[in-house]
Amino acid sequence: MDVILYLGAGAGAALAVGGLARAAWAVNRRIVEMVDLLQELSPDHGRSLKDQVTGLTEDVGVIRAAMTDLCQRFDRHMDDRERPE
Description:
mainly alpha
């Protein structure tokens, strides 16, 4: 009878240790995910999301300036065509 009690206590202890290990693993996994997200949002010479968005913003500024220049040139061209020579 004592053997059955010892086996039950051992099984209960093993379940408790397994539950604690699973909880510790879940907390560790959550911490790793948060660290990955923070690294993705911090600048790191072009590989992070923040650097890519900044690069896109600069590209849009260049495109906007080129489009403004092109529109002005087109307007001048159209004005020149409308004047009788």
